[in-house]
Amino acid sequence: MPIPSLEPTLDPGALARALSGLHLIDGALVAPAGGRVFDVVNPATGAVIATAADGDAADVDRAVAAARAAQPAWAARPARERGKLLAECGRRLGAHVEELGRLIALETGKALRTESRVEASVLADMFVFFGGLGSELKGETVPFHPDMLTVTVREPLGVVGAIIPWNVPLLLMAMKIAPALVAGNTVVIKSAEEAPLTVLRVCQILADVLPAGVCNILAGDGPGCGAPLVTHPDVKKVTFTGSVETGRIVYKAAADKLIPVTLELGGKSPMIILPDADLDRAVAGAVSGMRFTRQGQSCTASSRIYVHDSLYDAFFERVRERVDALVMGDPLDERTDIGTVISPEQFAKVRDFIEKGRASGATATECSALPTDPALRKGLFLRPVVFTDIGPDAPPAREEIFGPVVCLFRWTDFDAVIEAANDSPYGLAATVWTNDLAKAMEATRRLEAGFVQVNQNLVVQPNLSYGGVKTSGLGKEATLESMLEHFTHKKTIIFNMT
């Protein structure tokens, strides 16, 4: 089987075929132990573009064994040397941004210009950021007793199992493995079935810089590949992004082994617009915050928007106009703003939520326009929907849809809108839009969310602590603190030489 060249390529189809049916274990691209593969489908056309290795417990055993064997030597390297290697990985990935952007657009249906190229850039930056934190893996001197030298040191956990989703697989993989690697751990990644190719290509690039076995990646489904990874006795930490239901399964399995976990499990993020808000700025924030250019497939999507009654009608009309102007089409076309939903199953799920919203009596306004290109007639394109006159207990208002569906609510009482925003099992993100500093500070204090912004709706960035409360998960990511708290343990050492 020919090994895909490490030279950047702008032909995503050829690269997808070259990566077909492979894991990366112990520094080499290898076929799955059982020989099974599954199809990878372009959601914009319905065409099969490649196959992916269908990993099982035997593949997990091979990958974990390679990671375990490589971990002592990797941990023994000075932390700054590990950091320099991670920074070099970031530099290499930076040279592949266009290639990776095109490949992720092909396999996920996310538009190249508005989403995929941006994600590939942030991926490279995340490795550079964490590479620079190697020097921060330091302990403390403790004033325990004047006749004793008492210090603490940070030590890696061992083999880390990382399970990543399909919506932003490059960014979320980097947020997990870059800090784990700098801290001296080795990793085994389980990719999402819907998006296995681009992350495999990233790991091939990493393997050209890192020692064999330090970074390994498997493709496969949850029961066949993910579960054996979580329960493997040599995996000492699990970091997972996905649904609440699967997160609970992962948490219970990790609890049986008494190992630490990090969980990012989604959200139903509120956006509150006060009467003094800059309307144009809030409208732009709603369109970007709802992640319409990602088809709403985002944990932090502002899918519940609470607009003060005095601004509601104007806000709705301007949002409708802005979303109508977004171009839906071929994800690889530079003119495209909105691509496709990821899979037929997700497409059907989102459509079902829209129908449930209509059945509840809400008004569903469809925006933008479906592409007319005959080559895209089988694509999973879905018009964004803005619900108005919707009740707070209607399914689209309560549940995470992971699609281009947003619910608008009127409000007049500040205390009531804060209560409504918090009336959710989720607590990942929230935004507040106002020029009143006192109200902004009060709202940010009272909102039950782990990631709160005022007058902006940024996506996750390096050095911004990211993670939720309630059923949105456990732990934070993307910072120095996440590296120290989630990927090392603290050892206390006492010298008594008297």
TrEMBL record:
<dbReference type="InterPro" id="IPR016162">
    <property type="entry name" value="Ald_DH_N"/>
</dbReference>
<dbReference type="InterPro" id="IPR016163">
    <property type="entry name" value="Ald_DH_C"/>
</dbReference>
<comment type="similarity">
    <text>Belongs to the aldehyde dehydrogenase family.</text>
</comment>
<dbReference type="InterPro" id="IPR016160">
    <property type="entry name" value="Ald_DH_CS_CYS"/>
</dbReference>
<dbReference type="InterPro" id="IPR016161">
    <property type="entry name" value="Ald_DH/histidinol_DH"/>
</dbReference>
<dbReference type="GO" id="GO:0016620">
    <property type="term" value="F:oxidoreductase activity, acting on the aldehyde or oxo group of donors, NAD or NADP as acceptor"/>
</dbReference>
<keyword id="KW-0560">Oxidoreductase</keyword>
<dbReference type="InterPro" id="IPR015590">
    <property type="entry name" value="Aldehyde_DH_dom"/>
</dbReference>
<dbReference type="Pfam" id="PF00171">
    <property type="entry name" value="Aldedh"/>
</dbReference>
<feature type="domain" description="Aldehyde dehydrogenase">
    <location>
        <begin position="34"/>
        <end position="493"/>
    </location>
</feature>
<protein>
    <submittedName>
        <fullName>Aldehyde dehydrogenase</fullName>
    </submittedName>
</protein>
<feature type="active site">
    <location>
        <position position="264"/>
    </location>
</feature>
<dbReference type="InterPro" id="IPR029510">
    <property type="entry name" value="Ald_DH_CS_GLU"/>
</dbReference>
